[in-house]
């Protein structure tokens, strides 16, 4: 869902850049306050995993593919602001080094796949664990639903940005983005659940770390 | 060995990056929508290219070039975020 340069107009570029800059600034401030030594290696490993896994596009219906975003996974393990921080680093590297996602569109991509995806994924997860408890079942169901929701909502926000920019009318681009990403979200959910099960089986204590 | 769990995890991430040539080359959700709805041509060229589209330049074998790009990116991201997190923790200690 990396937006290239050219899809967004100046007003949308400026707005999303400003909001994302504020969001990343706040994430740095909070991480500076709350981040502990224990979280440092997990932050690095999650960023490495998200980058590697994002390269693995999986096929969905009709000659289309999707890939993990990873924001929900990061936010569930470390908290939504840590998720924003990790996703921002991934997206900055992808844009600067790998020419995936435009330079001007970086603010929008951080907003969609960093801020929107981390917060929606995290709070949907929290809601589910509130209902099902935070045992294994609640964690895994919450992980799936949160991951799916994070992709779906990020796609909707992306569609709104495209429509506001005049790339395509909202009635056209919104259902198309929502439809494809409802399917891609299933892949996101499955990968998130697989990683969470692995963490539960090997290092369940990592799920008890303070969230940022 | 327990304290080195992240080293094992990083090796797993590098192994995942090695699977990258197997990835589907179909357009992703957004690219597909842009093609279907006729706004893909709005996309501009990047002003500079380093490891564009996850293919390391100057290597004939595309699978190898993709794996190399994946390994480099995975290590960069680990170093970048580990370093940033480490600096934030360090600075907190100094302030305290």
Automatic annotation (TrEMBL), chain B:
Location (main, coarse): membrane
Ranges annotated as spanning the membrane: 63-90
Keyword line: Cell membrane, Membrane, Transmembrane, Transmembrane helix
PDGLE domain location: 4-88
A Pfam family: PDGLE
Protein name in the entry: PDGLE domain-containing protein
Localization terms from the record: Cell membrane
């Amino acid at each position: 869902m990396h937006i290239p340069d050219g899809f967004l107009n100046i007003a949308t570029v400026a707005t999303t850049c400003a909001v994302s800059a504020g969001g990343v600034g706040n994430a740095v401030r909070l991480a500076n306050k709350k981040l502990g030594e224990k979280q440092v290696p997990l932050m690095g490993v999650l960023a490495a995993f998200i980058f590697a896994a994002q390269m693995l596009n999986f096929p969905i219906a009709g000659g289309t593919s999707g890939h993990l975003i990873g924001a929900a996974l990061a936010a569930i393990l470390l908290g939504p602001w840590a998720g924003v921080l990790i996703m921002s680093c991934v997206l900055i590297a992808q844009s600067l080094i790998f020419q995936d996602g435009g330079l001007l569109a970086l603010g929008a991509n951080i907003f969609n796949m960093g801020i929107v995806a981390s917060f929606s994924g995290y709070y949907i997860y929290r809601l589910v664990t509130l209902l099902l408890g935070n045992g294994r079942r609640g964690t895994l169901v919450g992980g799936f639903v949160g991951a799916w929701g994070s992709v779906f909502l990020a796609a909707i926000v992306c569609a709104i940005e495209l429509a506001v920019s005049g790339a395509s009318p909202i009635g056209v681009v919104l259902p198309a983005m929502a439809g494809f990403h409802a399917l891609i979200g299933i892949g996101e959910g499955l990968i998130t659940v697989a990683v969470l099960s692995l963490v539960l089986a090997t290092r369940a204590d990592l799920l008890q770390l303070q969230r940022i | 060995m327990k304290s080195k769990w992240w080293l094992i995890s990083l090796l797993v991430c590098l192994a995942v990056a090695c699977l990258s040539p197997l990835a589907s080359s179909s357009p992703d959700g957004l690219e597909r929508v842009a093609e279907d709805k006729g706004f893909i041509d709005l996309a501009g060229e990047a002003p500079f290219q380093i490891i564009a589209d996850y293919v390391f330049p100057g290597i004939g074998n595309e699978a190898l070039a993709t794996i190399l790009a994946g390994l480099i990116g995975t290590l960069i991201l680990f170093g970048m975020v580990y370093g940033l997190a480490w600096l934030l923790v360090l600075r907190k200690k100094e302030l305290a």
